[in-house]
Structures are given as structure tokens and as C-alpha cells.
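To whoever is covering the structure queue this week,

Two jobs came back overnight. Logging them here so there's a record in the thread.

Job A:
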Amino acid sequence: MPRTVLTLMGALMALGVAVAAGWTGPLDAAVANAVVGIRSPLLTYIATSFTALGSEPVVTLLAVIAVLYCFGAGRARLVLTLLWIPFTFLLSTIVKLLVHRPRPLQALIVIPPSYSFPSGHAAAASALFLTLALLATGAERRAGPRRFLIGAALFLAVLVAWSRVYLGVHYFSDVVGGLLLGSAGAVAATAVVRRSGSRSAVQTLGSPE
């Protein structure tokens, strides 16, 4: 897990440098032009619907529901992992201010006033869905269900990321940065809570009766 987190964060830092230096401009422009070429009323409806899955109100609501479930199920320790989800918005804002990248000029929806890199929607969606998937697979020993849940979480996060590029409010490198940020935090937070749980279990087994 730590190696995965370091890899994701290293990739995010390298991408941030590339974006700030303007090296991703040609790729971002090519992707933006390709997206404009496939726009249709149906795809616009789909993108507008799914982009909400990464919005602050929806992500916050789902995180609160997950927290209430953890308390109700007697698994309050998992709430520490879920705290990463709202923290994603703050960290995303900090990175935006550091990179200072302007938004695309033309979009199908209202362009947010914040900077462009990384995508907050992509970061929040990956943080939410991947964290929930990793928590759900914590006690699952079968590889099939684990792969399905993690794959579904990544699919939803990528779908949100695609919607931001399609709607013209982010560049391709923005959403990649958001996915890296959210995923790194989800993996790190889940690993920390699982490790603390394992230590607690060992201490309980080793304590005298």
C-alpha cells in the first residue's frame, strides 16, 4: 500500500509540474477537440447527469450516509477513513492555488470560478467511491468480488472525470490529476485504518485475561 501511495503522489507531482510548465498543452488541446467532435444531445445529458456524482453536495451527502452506517454498524473506527473524503476538497483547492491554471474558455455549463488543475470533481469522486470500495472489500477474501467492487468504483470515478472534460470545464490533464489525488488519499487512509485495526486485534489477543 505505501508503495502505491508514493507512486500515485509522485505521478501527481510530476503531472503538476508538467501542467505548470505548459508541457501538457498539446495533448489537452487534442483531447478537447476530439471531445467536441463527438458531442451530442444524448452524451450531453449523460455527462450532465453523472458529473453531479463528483459535486460537493452529493459527495458530502454520501459520505455522511456512510459515516452514519459505520456508527450504526458498530464500526466507528472506519469513520477515520471516511474523513479523507471531505479533506479532498480542501487539498484540491490548495493544489489549484499552487498550479494556478486557468479554466478552458468554452464550456457547455457554467464555468466555475476556481482554477482548473486538478479537477475537484474527479478527486472527490475517486476519493469517495474508491474509499467505500476498499472498505467494503476489507473482509472479503475472494478475488472476484474485490475486483468487481474496486473496478466499479474506478469506473464511476472515470465517468465523472470524463464528464468534466466533455462539458468543457476541465482539461484532460486536470481530471487525471484529480483521479491521482483522490485515489492516493483513499489508498493511504484505508491502509492506515486497517493497520491500526490489526494492531488493536494483536494487542487484544496478547492481553492477559
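Job B:
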Amino acid sequence: NRKTIILNFIREKLMSPGAVMPDIPALCAESGFSYGYLLSAYKNTFHETMGQTLLKNRISYAVELLKNSSYPVSQICMMCGFSDISNFYRFFRRETGHSPSFYRRK
């Protein structure tokens, strides 16, 4: 199914380390799907928005880096695609229930 292939391709891109939000209008032009249809089909298929997928992936990558590296939190923040450390802390705590330093100590 063409729709499934396209949606899985987008999800794979969002799940790669250091991923960024894809250019949705370009994806629409390439796939022939309308903007609304593409966003709706993604959410219906994966039960989350593209932004939620990207955020969860970035936080998962941050958890791995905090557990398995000695990079400073500020560097991990940038490596995971966050440009502002306060946003990183806020999203990290919201997604994991803990601060980045908790995972560093763990």
C-alpha cells in the first residue's frame, strides 16, 4: 500500500538520531497527498502526531546519552535537536517524569 510505505518512511526519518521535522509541504508534493490528509493519516496510523514522534525520539536519545556518555547536559540538549536548554528540561521531565540529572546519576 502506497500510503503505508510513505507513512513508514516518514516515521523512520523521525526516529533516527538527530532527526528534524521533515518539510511537510515537500512531502505532500512528492506523495501527492494533501497537507491535512498526510497529517491525519499519520496520526490515525501511529496514534500520535509527527511532532510527538519526534519529541519522544529526541527524549529517548537523550536518555541513552545521559546513561551511556559523559557529555554535559547542555551538549546532549543540542545533540538531540533542542536549541534551548530550558525547553529540553521541561520536555524531558514531562516525558520521563524525571530531570536529566536523575538519569545521569542512575
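Note for Job B: The chain has seven helices and no strands.

Please reply-all if you pick these up so we don't duplicate work.
Q.
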